[in-house]
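Reposting from the mailing list since nobody answered there.

I have sequence plus structure tokens for a pair of proteins and want to know whether others read the tokens the same way I do. The first protein:
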Amino acid sequence: MTKKTRRILWIGGVLVVAGVVIGAIQKNNAEKKKVTEVTVEAASLRRLVATVAAEGKIDPVTQVKVSAEIPGRIVKLTVKEGDVVQQGDFLVELDPEVYISALDASKSALKSAQANKQKSDADYRRISELVARGMASQADKDGAEAAYKLAEAELERAEANERQSRENLGKTRLSAPMSGTISVLNKEVGELTLGSQFQEDVILIVADLSKMQVLASVDENDVINVALGDTARVEIDAFPDTTFKGVVTEIAQSASNITASGDFGADVSATNFEVKIFLIDSIPGIRPGMSATVDVETDYRTGALSVPIQAVAVRKKGEGEIVSVSREVEEQSSRQIQEQVRAGTLDTSKVQNQKDELETGVFVFANGEAMWKIITTGIAADRYMEITSGLADGDSIIAGPYRVLARELKNGDKVKIEEKKKNGKDGKGGNERG
């Protein structure tokens, strides 16, 4: 065997050994990759509170918009925004000159009508006496009677005009309709008011700031769960890290449709219902128009078996495999899809499988495997969902990471519990949301 041949054989042997080693390493890595790290949380008995979340604005329970009933120019303004007033306090004066002149004219017209009425009355009595003596005809009497009635009507018209002119002059001075605070001041001295016969032209608003409420916009799918008297937790942006108590006092019967610009400039329409929530707590410094978020407590459970919401998934019936969905639905959380399936509102045009081909369940950690278990659910709280059947207290539920639960995990997959991070913090992803 030549030296060249031996060299070729040696190189070939090295390549074979290297290939075997590389293959073994790749096989070992592949086997390691098959084991998915997950976080686990036990199914436990908890007190659950179902809530409906909404956003809104702070508004006084009682407020009055003050407008001028007649047009005019403001010549006196005795208050500024934030002033406290009592009922009957003088607030605004409009230029009275035009209305003083109108009153003088109406008074003059009234005097003329009174004199004319007096004259026609005397004429009618005199001609009636002449007719009785045969010294005047019936036609003369009829003419005098018509003149008397006409003068009487003119007098009534003049009296009405005089009353109207007097009232208009009185309307140039505006007083506080209630005790409260000037919460809005829209006009200044020298500005014109249009008068409110045809359209609202608010000069100022007097509000009772001791009693406030939230005007919240609740989605049409949630408002059916809200009832009068429900308790609410209110957070006001201006008072961070503080929660206030409220109670639902009014629910609108008609919807308010809101249109806003969405992605790519498309218009998105939302159908909401206004819900009024009275603030039980007295909050110093609160002002109308402040932004607030509310959580209306709609249902309660005590000692309910529950699991983390993100652990509940919707999968193909009998397989525990991921549902094939469009991008729009894929971006929704498993909680959103699960709630839509339970409520019967899932858009099947975006989901390839029909609703009767889907099932709700969780993955249970058992002997290093993810076992798919079908469940039925009850109410959903902020972090946990009630389980009415399919699980037992203490079952180890795979609760994260969300990416694994939503897109990767299948029935029978090998799993292991995620180790704690080196910095000592727990690496659990039990509260991850999509």
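The second protein, same order (residues first, tokens after):
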Amino acid sequence: MAVFKAGTRLKSAVCSSELMIVVAPAGDVNLTCGGAPVVELAADAPAAEIDPDQKAGTQMGKRYTNEAGDIEILCTKPGEGGLAADGTALEIKGAKPLPSSD
């Protein structure tokens, strides 16, 4: 578990994914990519293998969030691992609908 703040750069320990926290949760969160905890971008990643059940992949430029919307992560480099916070998979954040121009 770790406390993150907006702007923190992270990377996956099991794939090539690189991430940035856009909206940080209020408390501790267990953020994983490919089933392994993420690490600071400058840190050495421990030797680990991707969990076959966590191979959803990340897409560059997409924002990932949970249902509550209290965490938002921007993918800056794609990879094979899927993102999860406290064991719940994060989904790609959809675009907001624009108001009608009528």
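Reply #1 (J.P.):
I read it the same way you do. Residues 1 and 30 are 5 Å apart (CA to CA).
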